[in-house]
Amino acid sequence: MTAHLDESTVFRALFAAYPDALLLVDGEGGIALANPAAAALLGYSTAELAGMNVDALVPDAVRPRHAAYRATYQAQPRARPMGTDMSLVARRRDGSEVMVEIALSPLQQHGLPYVVAAIRGIGEYPRVREAIKRARYAECVAQVGRFAVDARDPQQLMRRATAAAVEALEVEQAVLYLLEPDGQRFRVAAGTGLPTGEPEGTLVPNRPDTPPGYVLAQGAPVTVADYLGETRFQVPPSFRAAGLVSALGVPLSDRGRVVGAISVRSRQARRFGEDEARFLESLAHLLATSVQRAQSDEALRHAQRLESVGQLTGGIAHDFNNLLTVIQGNLQVLESLPALAGDADAEPLVTAAARATRRGAELTGKLLAFSRRQLLQPARVDTGALVHSLADMLRRTLDQRIRIEVSTGAPCPPCLADPVQLESALLNVAINARDAMPDGGTLTIAARACESLPAPLAEQLAADAAAARFVEIAVADTGCGMSDAVKERAFEPFFTTKQTGRGTGLGLSTVYGFARQSNGGITLESAPGAGTTIRLFMPRWELPDEADAHEPDAAVGVPAGLRVLLVEDEPEVLRIVMTFLLGWGCDVTACASAEQALAALLESVEGNVGNVGNEGGGAFDLLVTDVVLGPGMRGTELAQHARRHRPGMPVLLMSGYASDLRGGEGGLTLASLASLTSLASAGTTEGPAPELLRKPFSREELAAAIGALMGPLTAGSRRPDAGSPG
């Protein structure tokens, strides 16, 4: 027989044992009673809850709306079951928030001025848990994205991203690997969590048997359920030593180009599923794009800084070349004076001054190389033969403790470059490598076909140049390497880490300028203790191979009586060149501008019309002109006019500065100077290709240039009395 039930006792027992949180609330929002489930859910004791106002359990942001809603409800109370309204949030004692559903049951109909609020925490519902997790992942990606918009330092962004991944996934570690430019190694760019022997800067081989290398080889997310059973790649012992059990890795790719990988690791087995993989993929895409953008921006800023320095140094070198031409020329005139021949004191002084001008010319040449204003003569270069020849020379000259290795693709295509300057550039790099290995090491020179430039380099070139195919020549050493601060300034002129007197700081800067001027590029990879690799990218020779053209006989002297039209706007340079020409018995007409020279040329042509049998009469035999001639017509334009009015007329252009050859619209470049030979009207005889004489030049160099032009015209002809350039 069932004992008589005490309703009051039963109701109190039900209130206390009910699994949902129950609050008995009066019309003012005061809590009269709370059950143990409410205390557990909200973080208070039942005694603390009794006497509190329900507004204290509402987040600050919605408290005003809640008070208005409560007042409206109190005026018209009605039952509201769970699940019929939107989910709400309750504030716990520690300030945290919990998602809840609330059912309201008014007791006024039973004569009691209360409402029973039944509160159920729904954060543990599987569907809600999944939704919360996905929302957390989405918010993490959004936060990193917002940070990426304003971030100027890619390192800060990468560290922020790994920290966000650790927080969002609630794991122990996240590591970001970036692929080195050579594609052979990863560098640990950033990391958050437990140390596992991979501090920032650590290099990891890009092989399928390494964790990041396997991720790149798969090209898709890779999940590790338990490192103890992993057989696809080698698990570093430090991972297990740190208690790491499971992992997830995804590749970083931007516009189809893989640039690295990001991995997260946990102490729990089978920690990662599809949601985590999708989240990490989203973060990886964002990181890849942001890092590539930051690297491109930094490369552009670096190129702009170097360009500014190049403009300054190029302008100085240009003016200095004119000064050196005057100094060097006058010294040569002094050397030939009879009064100096017997002066034992004067001769050493002149010789020392001449030696100094040659050193000055070498210095300006390096400055012009850096600023991409040197005069280049590009031609077909057998890349493989050049590399092997350079290696043979280095084996004979470098420290025997330095081992030299050569690697060339089979077949390695030829490149388009100035062969002398290319060899000089590679020699500069090799000398730097030697200095980085004072105790010996390995110097590797490699050459291979390369279909395109690395992205940061391609963005710095014109579209047609960037789209070309290239030959990559790499010089790698096993020396001390460079810090990030040194790498940042490695291509700046006059920057050197060598002791005073051991280096000018112009080695790598000239290589940089030469590569850029050749429509190629250069990259530098280095880390302290990991050696240095410098890669030159030169345009590939795309024309069919032809037999070497016959070289003109430059040894022919300057013909006596040669009629020369000389154009130079610098009075001192004009005077010294005129002195040389007069010394060889030339008939010289000197002009300070192209306009003045053109008038003299037209006058000579008109005076020669119909003068048959006079072997040219009063017409000029040779035009010698500077390229830049003040504010008026340029020397290249004058040459064009000369060829039109005097077809086949030999032209000698003087310049110390490749930019002299870049005019405004329609200006000539060095590669197009040969077109001057065909500027005469159709059907006329073409003349020799124009010669380019670099400033500063010596008397012998001027004579050789004139001989190269006039030799084919004078050999065995009307000028057998060729004068000597001495």
Compose a concise summary of this entry.
By secondary structure, the protein is an alpha+beta fold. Strand 17 and strand 18 form a beta hairpin.
Give an overview in words.
With 726 residues, this protein is of the alpha+beta class. It has four domains: 7-124, Beta-Lactamase (2-Layer Sandwich); 129-299, GAF domain (Beta-Lactamase, 2-Layer Sandwich); 379-539, 2-Layer Sandwich (Heat Shock Protein 90); 563-714, Response regulator (Rossmann fold). The chain has 21 helices and 23 strands. The strands form five sheets. A six-stranded antiparallel sheet has the order 8-7-6-11-10-9, with helices on both faces. Strands 2-1-5-4-3 form a five-stranded antiparallel sheet. A five-stranded mixed sheet has the order 13-15-16-18-17, with helices on one face. Helix 5 (126-150) runs antiparallel to helix 6 (154-169), helix 5 runs parallel beside helix 9 (274-335) and helix 19 (594-608) packs parallel to helix 20. The longest helix is centred in the middle third of the chain and has 62 residues, at 274-335. The radius of gyration is 41 Å and the shape is elongated. Residues 500-505, 546-555, 610-617, 659-685 and 715-726 have low confidence and may be disordered.
